[in-house]
C-alpha cells in the first residue's frame, strides 16, 4: 500500500497547494484525520520551508468531552512548540435564537474564527481526505447537482486573505490509520461521527463499505477522478468566463442581459457554464447555483429567439426572453430609461408597447387607447416614477401622489419602479400605464387630434 507521505506528495505534484514560505493554519479537532495532518506538516516543515500553527474550536455541544479534546490538541502543540489558537463558541445559544441547523451554525461560526486568524497566515489547511471525497461525490449524485458539485471538494480555493487547501485529498483513511499506528500517535474520538442521523455518516457507514467490497481502491480512484474533473471544469469555466465578459452587459438596475443568438452559437458545455457564471453574479447561495433543474430551465428558455417568455427564479429573480435578448435579475423592479414618445415610433417599456398616432387610426380590439390634443411645444415621455410624482385623477379635487396610488391599487413594491408613466412636459403625469389615467386624457375620440395606443406584450 502506498504511504500517506507518497499520497500527499503525489497531490502536491498536481496542484502545488503548499508553497515555500507558507504560514499554515491547520484546523485540528483532535480526531485521527486532523492529528495526522498536524503531525505530518510539523515533521515536514523544515523540508518544505513553512511555518505551522494549529486552531481548535469548541462548539460547546459535548460538555467536558469537547473541552478535553481542546486540551489534548493544546498539549500536543505545546510539546512541539507549535503555535496554538482556540475559541469556545456557544452554538446551542445561537441555534436557540436563530432556529438554524446545528451543523450549519457550527461550520459558519468555526470558519468566521478561522477568517479572523488568517491575517497572520497564508493558508488554512483542513484534513479532508480521499474517503471524504468519495462520500462528497456520492452525496452530490443523490442531489442531482451540477458537474462542479459532482467533482467534489476542491484542493484549493480562495479564503479570507489567503487560501484554503486540502493536501490530504489523495490520502485514504487506511493510510491515515497506518501513519498514526506506526508512530504511536494518539487521537480523540467524536461519538457524533457514528450517528446515522447525518447524511454523510449514513453514506460512510452503509454505502461506501459495499463499494469497497467491489474495489478496495475506490476512494483513491474517486480522488483521482475528482482532480481530472476539476481541471477540465476549470479550463471550460475560463472559456465561458471570456464569453460572459465579452457579451453580458449589466443594466443600471443591476439586471444582466445578453443576445440569445450569440448564446446559441456556443457549445452546450460552455452554455451550461455561461449560465452558472451568470447565476453566480445574481446569487450567493451555493445550493441555488448547484440546482440542475434551474440550469436546465434556463437553457430551455434560451433554446429559441421566437416569442417572449419568462421564468420566476428563487429569491424574486426573473429570467425573461424578450425580442431576442435574455434578461436575468430583479427585472420586475427595473428602472425604465426615459424615452420621448414621437409619432409612429413605438416605445417598449416593461410589458407594454406605447405608440402615438393620429386619432382615428385603426388599432386592435385589445389595445387601450387614450385621446389627447397636444398644445404648442408639448412633448410626451415614458419614464419610471420619481420622488414626489402626482397624478390628477378624474373625480378628484387635487392631484394624488403616485406612491399613494400604488398602495391603494395594491401594486407590489417590487414592481412599482418598473411601471411606466406617460408624462407631458406641460401637464405632468398623463397616465400610470396599466393602473390609472389622468383628467388630461380621454377614452373617447371626440375632436382630439392624437391617440396614444397602449398594447400589452404577451410574455
TrEMBL record:
UniProt binding sites for ATP: 29-34
Signal peptide coordinates: none
Main location: cytoplasm
GO BP field: tRNA modification
Pfam families per the UniProt record, alphabetical: ATP_bind_3, TilS_C
Subcellular location: Cytoplasm
GO CC terms: cytoplasm
Keyword field contains ATP-binding: yes
Listed GO MF terms: ATP binding; tRNA(Ile)-lysidine synthase activity
Domain Lysidine-tRNA(Ile) synthetase C-terminal: 380-454
Domains (record comment): The N-terminal region contains the highly conserved SGGXDS motif, predicted to be a P-loop motif involved in ATP binding.
Physiological role: Ligates lysine onto the cytidine present at position 34 of the AUA codon-specific tRNA(Ile) that contains the anticodon CAU, in an ATP-dependent manner. Cytidine is converted to lysidine, thus changing the amino acid specificity of the tRNA from methionine to isoleucine.
Name used for this protein in its record: tRNA(Ile)-lysidine synthase
